[in-house]
Amino acid sequence: MAAPSSPILVTGASGRVGGVGRSIVELLRQRGASVRAFVHHDDERAERLRSLGAEVFVGDLTRAEDVVEATRGCRRVYLGMGVSPDYLEAAVLMAAAARELDVEVLVNISQMTVSQMSLSSMTESRQQRQHWMVERVLDGSGLPVVEVRPTVFLENPFFSAFAEESIADDDTIRLPFGGGRTSPIAARDVAEVVATILESPASHVGRVYELTGPVSQDMNGVAAEYARALGRPITWVDVPFDEWSRSLRARLLPEHLESHLLTMARLHAIGRYDRSSSDVERILGRPATSVRDFVAANAARFARRPIRRETAAASPARARDYTARRIDRAFDVPYERFVRSLASLLGRMDPDALHRLRAGNADEARRELAKRVGPSGFAIFQELDHGALVRAFTDRPARSTLYVFGNALLAIEMTKHVAEVGLYVPLRMFVEEMTPTSVRVTYDLPSSILGQFGSAPVNVVARDLDRKVEALLTDAAAGKRPPPRQ
Length: 486
Hints:
Blueprint: E1 8-10, H1 20-30, E2 35-39, H2 44-51, E3 55-58, H3 64-71, E4 76-79, H4 87-100, E5 105-109, H5 126-139, E6 145-150, H6 161-170, E7 172-174, E8 181-182, H7 187-199, E9 208-211, E10 217-218, H8 219-230, E11 235-237, H9 241-249, H10 255-269, H11 279-284, H12 291-297, E12 326-331, H13 335-345, E13 347-348, H14 351-358, H15 362-372, E14 379-384, H16 386-393, E15 400-406, H17 408-417, E16 427-435, E17 438-444, H18 446-450, H19 456-477
């Protein structure tokens, strides 16, 4: 069929897990279709899309005016967004824009777990609940919709980032799936299905496609496919769920993503991912990509980490004293206002960038880490609600939060010179409500704790951190907020 004259809108075009949107753009351009790629940031990923010949629209899927402007002139739309607490809002806005602008087809990527959900049977994952609600919205919208429900991706951390780490360590895959079976699918297969539908949508409107890998099997079977692809034994370790969940939480992932992965692990263990469908082959005319073929195509990512064997005599423990300068600042600002302003000035650490850094994609990871810092030059690694613990065991009503925050690139720069700097970065800051109209902030001055190493390059960075932390607190107390995203 000839390519449509109007552009096809592809949202989530610079997405992360599997890069479904990016692959859809690539496939459609290869087939001669005009494409408008909706991205959130005008960065190197957007430039790559432009190099494919796509028109790039930079905007925010939760801003109605951006969604309408991006959709205007497009007759065919793909709606996709990463794991995000804003997904429902974005999807409803897109549905409203698509209806107003009378699109020919809206292809929505959902999740296969939705088929087992109802008003009386939900899952604990907010992301999965959002997908179910979006499908209900689209059902009643009157729009020409195609629902695409993939199962878990092979690019999911279960089978990629987490597996890469444990295979590199000891040739194991450590997941708490019990006797559950799974049929993971390659994101590229999903992208090819969506591109095929967008290219010629008429026969697909109103359909629901459930996409799985070619076979559903237990984790011993999955490990065997890794082994055949890598040419060495790979075994699966059924880690107790509580132990695995503790290790997941130690990764300091965003709460929404962490909850989603925990739920996916639980659902795997009770058999909810034991699904098999021939929809991929029906649409593409070929079988879905197997675990073995996916791993073989990415074998370098699953290489064993070199083992260093050193024999050395045990050395006695050494002690070294140092003096830290504790800073206590009081501000006549209500707690809620202060922490809200503080959060707006701090970015959020991106765990995907850390995974890429571990996988050796250092340049890409550095660019991602740089984008994750807020206007203050810092990003939040973790927030701990100490006040909730205090209120649970005492009658003290005050609120307090411990912030673990910093700048990963600065930390990398310092640890190049002194590895032990890693004991003290990210930094920590304690914010406590003193009265209804005042807060106290406590932290150790970075130059005092990092000065113990006697490293000139570290001291330069540490003094800069002193200034940045002081500026952060001053701005938060003044209620300074970053300008709205454009």
